[in-house]
Amino acid sequence: MEIKRASINASALRVTVGAAVPRSVWHELHEADPCALPTQAPAWLDCLVAAGGYQDASRLYELADGRVALLPLVRRSYPTGGSAILQSMPKSWGYGGLITPDGVTADLVNTVLDDLSTTSALRVRIRPNPLHLAAWAEAAAGRAGVTAVPSRAHVLNLDGGFERVWRSRFKPRTRTDIHRAENDGITVDTDTTGRLVPVFYDLLIRSFDRWAAQQHEPVRLARLRGRRRDPIDKFRTIAEQLGTRCQISVAWVEDRPAAAVIVLRGGANAHYTRGAMDDSLAIRTKANPLLHKVAIEAACNSGCRAYHMGESGTSAGLARFKGRFGAQPYDYCEYWIERFPVYRADTAIKSCVKKMIGFHDA
Description:
Helix content: 40-55%
Mean pLDDT: 90
Order of helices and strands: EHHEEEEEHEHEHHEHHHEEEHHEHEH
Strand content: 25-35%
Number of helices: 13
Structural class: alpha+beta
Shape: globular
Distance between the termini: 44 Å
Strand order of the largest sheet: 2-5-6-7-14-8-13-12-11-10-9
Radius of gyration: 21 Å
Low-confidence stretches: 1-10
């Protein structure tokens, strides 16, 4: 792929696209940005490409004032061709957005939005790092063709190390539950080779069934949606591509798996990206708090600055659970740049279907 050079605005010098982006530069930017997430690393994009259906469309911005920033981006490829959909990142693939050692500012986001608005893509979808919410909101405000989609995430600050997090940020009840799980003999097995992927996936299938009941959704439909969004080969690919940066932990009650989490590490941050459980075991044994304690302690010991706990949406239950570890809510937005109002039409259709089947978000 050739380097694309374009004059975006007065402050932009050059844009390099896709495979032409030097991996060495990407690695350097990712390592130098204290807010960079594992899902913004080049290895994560390799996971999307290896899982099938995506092509590298990342954009490296070199500005006239010396700043350099990178937007991890994938292009959805279709056998029939047609207009592309660009995403950073696709749904169920974590956070995208900008990485730069100079900090994400509103003027930088403005430059990027100007550039993305000139592409031939039918739609561009950006899910930025929630910690950069202010810069993206300021830059996107009042822009024609840009739809802001409200979302909420929770992030735990790890400053001060694990002892400080344990004593000052974990709630007393959470510490009590963890001690109970440890005293009851709940064990945690952690692996970075992919050995535990089948165990995790079996628990995930059980979780599909539980979510179906909570959401008043037919079980067969929930399993179909879940397997399509998260096939087992996706997790095998992630474990293979990321190696030691993908940590799968399983809590065992005697010889039975009760709960599991997948935590990614990269740059200066950790990201709890998936969780699953057998609720008949996990709830009464307090397996989930113990799992997160182990993951948070490992993140602290590896020098991470934050433990991202992912999307919470409007779920009060998820917000309470994450808050028990001291994670703070961040109300941010995804951004859709569209030629046609696809987002609103898609939302209307989904709302209609949900009403027909009695679905409600848990």
